[in-house]
Amino acid sequence: MEITTDVIKQLRDMTGVSVMQCKKALLEADGDLAKAEVILRKHSAASALKKADRDLASGAIGSYTHDDAIGAMVLLSCETDFVAKNPEFSALARELAMHVAAMNPAYLTSDDISADAKEAATAVFEKEVADKPVEMRTKVLEGKLAAYFRDQVLLEQPFIKDGSKTVRDLINEATQKFGERIEIGRFARLSVR
Q1: Do 44 and 20 have their domain in common?
Q2: Would you give the DSSP letter of residue 193?
Q3: Residue 52 pLDDT
Q4: How many domains does the chain have?
Q5: Are residues 127 and 160 in the same domain?
Q6: 139 and 168 assigned to the same domain
């Protein structure tokens, strides 16, 4: 299948990734747009992993308020001022703040969950799985705990504007798009109610 500039442009508009990366993904997917998008998502996670050791020396703070009753701020860190001053990077920080305002996460990563919180949740869910067969209890308990905390961990939550992506996927895509390590440093949410 011939890969035209229109198809490359369409994939670039969908993903925000560079023209060369879009062309390579389309070549690998034999011109199939949907497959190329999946390939780019797979590459974005690998790209983010390669850049994990780089220092974060810059960033932007995104903020969002809703009806003057809910507000959120997100510190989105990156490696250089060049990326930090990019309007698309600032827009991403604002969208993440909007997500925090809407979803009210309690933790940034699953590593941030305290032992006390894990113990309390385990105690509740152990009662729920008590009637299950012994060989299934541990697996069912792990599944319930993972689902319960997934809703509270920012990086694991489905992104409010696109439920097919998690916030972690969004950060990985941004790492690929901007070509440097990007990470949420901190976040805060305030509410009148």
Answers
A1: yes
A2: -
A3: 65
A4: 3
A5: no
A6: no
How many C-beta atoms surround the C-beta of residue 119 within 10 A? 9
Higher-pLDDT residue of 37 and 77 is: 77
- Residue pointed to by tokens 């070549």: 27
- Looking at the fold, whether 102 and 131 belong to one and the same domain comes out as no
Tell whether 144 and 164 lie within a shared domain.
no
Sign of CA dihedral 40, 164, 66, 69: negative
pLDDT in tens, 65-86: 999 999 999 999 999 999 999 9
The answer to whether residues 129 and 170 belong to one domain is no
**Is 31 strand, coil or helix?**
coil
Which residues, 6 or more positions from 148, have their beta carbon under 8 angstroms from its beta carbon?
Answer: 121, 125
Distances (CA, A) of 133 to 137, 138, 139: 6, 10, 11
Residue 11: both structure tokens together: 């994939």
Q: Tell me the per-residue pLDDT of 162-177, one tens digit each, with 9 for 90 and over.
A: 999 999 999 998 988 8
Residue 121 belongs to domain spanning: 114-150
Tell whether the torsion through CA atoms of 147, 153, 156 and 161 is positive or negative: positive
